[in-house]
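Hi all, long-time lurker, first post. I run a small reading group and we've been trying to get comfortable going from sequence to structure in the token notation. Rather than ask abstract questions, I figured I'd post a concrete chain and ask someone more experienced to write out its structure so we can walk through it together at our next meeting. Sequence below, copied exactly:
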Amino acid sequence: MNLIELLAHGAQHGADRPALLLEDRAVSYGALQAQAASLAAHLRRLGVRPGDRVALVLPNQPEYVIAFYGIVGAGAVVVPINPRARAPEMAYVLDDAEVRGAIVHAAALPELRAALADGAALAPLLVAGAPPTCPDEIELAALLHDGGALDPGVAADDDLAQLIYTSGTTGRPKGVMLTHHGLALNAECVTEQLGVRADDRLLAVAPLGHILGCSLSMNGTLYRGAAAVFTPALDLDTLLATVEQQRCTVMGVVPTLLAMIRVHPRRYDLSSLRIVLTGGAPAPEGLLDALATELGLRVVEGYGATEASGGISMNPPAGPHKRGSVGVPQRGMEVAVLDDAGRPLSPGQIGELCLRGPTVTRGYWRRPEATAEAFAGEWFRTGDVGYIDADGYIFIVDRKKDVIITSGFNVYPREVEDALYLHPAVAEAGVVGVPDSIKGELVCAMVVLRPGAQATAEELIAWCKQRLTPYKAPSRVVFLDALPKSASGKILRRELRQRLGAQRG
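-- Answer (accepted) --
Happy to help. Here is the structure in token form:
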């Protein structure tokens, strides 16, 4: 199955059924297919050829989905770029991916123009959200009409469909090559494991240019014939009000957003939410317990990666559920724990989690060395440290590169963060190691307190010592108004280390 066939599969539930919802606007499955087909035909007329890379610089809105399927419907490759990215970030991706054309929101157009300041041009350049102001711009809305039908034969299953650039938390971003078949199969399997139905309404809150939003909120929703619900603004009140008003039943979010929902002073009716999937970063157990008891939210942990085309595993919603686990692999995905020499480890032994299966990336765009480094034979190295128990459940300990070594002992930031999240005053926490001449590294925590709450550094250090082996407790606690995060909501440990370094100086 390729992505065009995926959309057709979802439309079998009825062409008049809503596919995309934004306030009082509804785009049916029939309209989505017709408008995507129209855009695909115009892109081909404007010179886009199969295999060309086309940047997609739009926020979460119905036009993103239409544009995505229009691009792949033309046989081209989608290169999503965060519409809030700055010109240097855009320039890097545009150059590295050798992008030919772009579909961009008017609000992001100045940064895109600045990224092209050396005189380069993108053709075509389609603009959404406002009328064109320059001769080389074409209004996206003018190209979205009844365009007939998408041609599934324009792309083979193993053709490249999307280049998603990694967040770059450990270096310059790399373009992850994802195929039609990998994306389509992952969308099928992740929604199968989560139990998504055709009558569900999924809140599209995770960015669609991020693999969680792409696999679940967009492709997975459409495969099942369900409806993707968009919010008119990005603030938390609007998001929660949308859940209440649209009676959303499923959503996938990163743990940091769940932490914000928990401490939000206003209360909305979230009873329509049948299940919440959290992924993109480890979720503290204390946070999941609090959401269940305080808000009645049923949250399950999932594990995914851009290099896997989306989901890898999930704590089974129908059980048995294992506390602290990210569950069992989804259909078609194999997960193993290997040591540094690439040898498999026994159940319960900690090592690097590695993947293989039909949805795993073929590698990084124009990065043969990085691709070779990322694979141990046929196994893709995730960079995550964890173990698999005797029942096949996966437990993530931390990122391999984030392990703190203090006085010769390994400390995994996540277990320290979990302890901090149990404190009633803590809203968010990020833990990193900083160099120390005696111990090698010190455990340092940066904490955001809940609104109106108070706590001292000494209090939080003592709290951790009561719950952890003493060497794991932070030596230092710094309070911040907010933690630095990537576009997908992951805490940027590199920036935490930089801030601590600046404060030491």
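A couple of things your group might point at:
DSSP finds 14 helices and 26 strands in the chain.
The first helix runs from residue 3 to 11.
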